[in-house]
């Protein structure tokens, strides 16, 4: 816990945030091959509980649950797409809120993997389960 629990830095500038995150992490060992900052299970930067990296800025390996809420066997490296970024942002907001209220921190971050959807042409989409369906399009 930082000396002042209200002092928090969040780095979430997408790829634009990589330089700031690297500078804050202060060690080349703390980034992956793409330069994303490797974070703790609570998305803070190792050695800096007051600094969080989220979204495309962060290398996050987290336990995941599928669409039905069933826990996956192994933790997964989260892809650089919108859902992890959104869920990570909400999680860090919860941590900060709980710090401000002097409450116990939440459990480590886990990812709700709702699957992927690709739109092919104007009338077909594919989801990660391999099904296809028609979508309304003009
Ligand atoms: C072409 C493209 C298509 C994509 N398509 C999909 C898709 O279909 N589905 C999907 O899930 N994901 C998609 N993604 C990925 C998705 O956009 C990102 O994973 C997601 O936006 C990451 O969110 P973020 O908050 O980390 O970063 P961003 O959404 O990039 O937000 C970062 C914000 O920080 C701001 N910023 C940057 N530097 C600074 C600075 N120095 N000072 C102040 N502000 C700064 C930026 O202007 C931006 O608003 C796509 C990405 C690209 C590039």
Strand order of the largest sheet: 1-4-3
- Poorly predicted runs: none
Judging from the principal axes of the Cα atoms, what is the shape?
globular
Number of strands: 12
Number of helices: 2
Helix percent reads 10-25%
List SSEs in N-to-C order. EHEEEEEEEHEEEE
- Percent of residues in β-strands: 15-25%
Indicate the mean pLDDT.
82
Small molecules (ligands, ions, cofactors) in the structure? flavin-adenine dinucleotide
Query: What can be said about the biggest beta sheet?
Result: 3 strands, mixed
Task: Provide the gyration radius in Å.
Answer: 17 Å
Structural class: alpha/beta
Alpha-carbon distance between the two ends: 53 Å
Q: How many domain modules?
A: 1
Could you characterize the architecture of this molecule?
With 138 residues, the chain is an alpha/beta fold. The protein has one domain (9-134). Helix content is 20%, strand content 25%. The protein has 2 helices and 12 strands; from the N terminus they run βαβββββββαββββ. It has helices spanning 18-25, 82-100, and strands at residues 9-11, 37-38, 44-45, 48-53, 58-59, 61-62, 64-65, 76-77, 111-112, 117-120, 124-127, 132-134. A 3-stranded mixed β-sheet has the order 1-4-3, covered by helices on one side. A hairpin with a 4-residue loop joins β11 and β12 (132-134). The longest helix has 19 residues, at 82-100. The mean pLDDT is 82. Residues 12-14, 16-17, 55-57, 80-83, 85 line the site of flavin-adenine dinucleotide.
